[in-house]
Amino acid sequence: MIVTTTPTIEGRPIQEYLGVITGEVIVGANIFRDMFANIRDIVGGRSGSYERILADAREQAIQELQAASATRGGNAVVGVDLDYEVIGKTGSMLMVSVSGTAVRI
């Protein structure tokens, strides 16, 4: 399934617009990962554990978006927008949301 941030797919005319769809994933922080990330903040460098969690959450949200498109009879998603938000009382959770328009090409 084609998933793109562009409003059209070059060379593939959109036959039908099937509506706005979304995919959301919320992941919780882990005390040990947080502890090591805090150390990275002090000494510098990238937090590989958070990067992996973020990449996994993003992939899961996109998979949900693809499933939502397929449920509506779509075979592509255009106009995709990714958003990241820290949520929870203590900011200990991360939400990845993705939205777009399901289409049939």
Please render the helix and strand layout as text:
Layout: E1 2-3, E2 16-28, H1 31-43, H2 48-71, E3 76-87, E4 93-104
Parallel strand pairs: 1-3
Antiparallel strand pairs: 2-4, 3-4
CATH fold assignment:
Translation Initiation Factor IF3
Please count the beta strands (DSSP E, at least 2 residues each): 4
Low-confidence blocks of residues: none
Query: Helical content, roughly?
Result: 25-40%
Tally of separate domains:
1
Descriptive keywords:
alpha+beta, 105 residues, 2 helices, 4 strands, single chain, Translation Initiation Factor IF3
Describe what this molecule looks like in 3D.
This protein is α+β, with helices and mostly antiparallel strands and 105 residues long. The protein has one domain: Hypothetical protein apc22750. Chain B (Translation Initiation Factor IF3, 2-Layer Sandwich). The chain has helices at 31-43, 48-71, and strands spanning 2-3, 16-28, 76-87, 93-104. The protein has a four-stranded mixed β-sheet. The longest helix is centred in the middle third of the chain and has 24 residues, at 48-71. The mean pLDDT is 85. InterPro entries: UPF0145_dom_sf (IPR035439), UPF0145_YbjQ-like (IPR002765). Pfam families: YbjQ_1.
